[in-house]
Amino acid sequence: MGGWLAILSLTLVSFAIAAFSLRLPREGYAVFGAVLLFGLVGYAWQGSPDQPGAPKDPEISSGQQTGEEMVSARHQLFDSSIAKPDYLVFSDGFARQGKFSDAAAALRRGLADNPDHLEGWLALGMALTGHADGVVTPAAFYAYGKARELDPANPGADFFLGFSFLQTGEIRAARDTWARLLANSPEDAPWLEEITARIERLDQMIANAPMLQ
Questions:
Q1: How many domains does the chain have?
Q2: CA-CA to 133 of 20 to 30 Å: which in 70, 125, 188, 198?
Q3: Tell me: the pLDDT tens digits for 142-193?
Q4: Ordered DSSP codes for 7-45
């Protein structure tokens, strides 16, 4: 309960700062509040079991925990019994410490010799995004695209790409990315229900925010 009170307090403070200190336009209140609310919903989902095989949001914080959560979320998409190449292990070590630039450098070297390694490209996209404080740079977008190209059935590229778009306020880009994920997923994919629910919430946000239409 105390954790929820802290989160709610932080949300209210964030809204007050944006609305009054930063003078957010009144027409932007709805979408900004919706983004904060979506974050709270994501926090609630974090504490609940998801369906097996469904990726989970990396926790957005700072330092080691962020990197640890990113690596953990990616690992859920791959068979843990299969040994990972040394370059990916080294990169994950850097990422867990929040050293995303070093993580990306290790991945680039490894992918030069292993250009068809799906998890390597996915890890590179996540590392580059982490290094840019959540912004999807052209290099990160390219890495996610390579991961999707290697295995369109793997949800990782579009799931984490959409999540990054959402965190930086690119609501329509997040919605369209997750819609593509649904379109490319098999009918029995374990993540369909969750992604469908996320898209529905984004559609509600877009409908209630004229600047997003």
A1: 2
A2: 198
A3: 999 999 999 988 899 999 999 889 888 888 999 999 999 999 888 888 888 8
A4: HHHHHHHHHHIIIIIS---GGGHHHHHHHHHHHHHHHHH
